[in-house]
Design a protein that fits this description.
Elements (H helix, E strand, L loop, with lengths): L12 E6 L7 E5 L5 E8 L3 E12 L4 E8 L9 E8 L10 E5 L5 E2 L2 E10 L7 E5 L11 E4 L8 E2 L12 E7 L1
Antiparallel strand pairs: 1-13, 2-10, 3-9, 3-11, 4-7, 4-8, 4-10, 4-13, 5-6, 5-9, 11-12
Length: about 180
């Protein structure tokens, strides 16, 4: 008699990150400018993206929209692979600690450049926002950060520091390998 085969789920592995958080420097996500952010990252193996970690503090009543997109030229705005709405109370907290956004429908990916985008659903107003902490200036990863805000030219603009150097967000992306 043979034993039945059991499916064993692989544990998620850290696939891309920039962990240093500049606690003195944060910015609004949403708000009256309806500001959105994106971070490009590179994956070196195929699998399913399980979750994202961000240093984010949201008011309980907001709804955060997270997307995973292809970024073949290193710029967000490619084909969307996944879109998820996260209630703000899941991301509530007052400190610059990483908070998990677990994907309910993990997108399958292959090696390449991708971006996560993050924004607030609903009308732009001063009370509809989250606080997002960034990485220190001068830190680099396999991709840069971008933003979109009301009053700026359309499309994703590079996130720059005061010396016009590219900035990145603090983040971690986890992958379940094939």
């Amino acid at each position: 008699m043979t034993a039945p085969l059991l499916a064993v789920a692989t544990e998620p592995e850290l696939a891309a990150e920039q962990m240093i958080i500049e606690t003195a420097y944060n910015t609004d996500l949403g708000g009256s400018a309806n500001q959105q952010f994106a971070q490009v990252f590179e994956l070196h193996e195929a699998g399913s993206l399980s979750h994202l970690m961000l240093p984010l503090h949201c008011h309980p009543h907001v709804q955060v929209e997270v997307k995973i997109e292809e970024a073949p030229n290193g710029i967000p705005g490619g084909a969307a692979l996944m879109r998820q709405i996260v209630p703000g109370y899941v991301l509530d907290g007052v400190s610059a600690h990483m908070r998990m956004i677990e994907f309910t429908r993990p997108p399958r990916v292959k090696p390449g450049k991708y971006a996560f985008t993050i924004g607030i659903r609903g009308a732009a107003n001063a009370s509809n926002f989250c606080i997002l902490w960034q990485a220190p200036a001068g830190i680099t990863t396999s991709g840069n950060a971008y933003f979109v805000a009301t009053g700026n030219p359309p499309g994703w603009l590079p996130l720059l520091d005061s010396q016009f150097q590219p900035r990145v967000l603090a983040f971690q992306v986890y992958l379940r390998p094939n």
